[in-house]
Amino acid sequence: MKAVVTLSSKNQIAIPKAARKKLAIGPGDHLILDVEKDSLILKPKPKSYTKHLRGLHKDVWEGLDATEYIRKERKAWEEK
Description:
Blueprint: H1 17-23, E1 31-36, E2 39-44, H2 49-53, H3 66-79
C-alpha cells in the first residue's frame, strides 16, 4: 500500500485510515521511526518484544541437538 501524506506546519503527518486499519494501530499506540538512506520507515512498536522475537531464526537450529552443540563449543573454548 502506498499513500501520499503532507507534512503540516507543525511537522506532523496523518496516517491514512487504510494504513491504520491494516496495521491495527490507533490513538495512543507507539510507533518506531527508522531512517534508512533517504527513506523513513514507520512500524508499530511491539507490545511485547519477547512475543515479537519468539521463534526468530528457529530454522537455524532445526535438526541440531542443543546439548551436543554446547558441549562442542565449550570444548573448542578449552582448546584455545
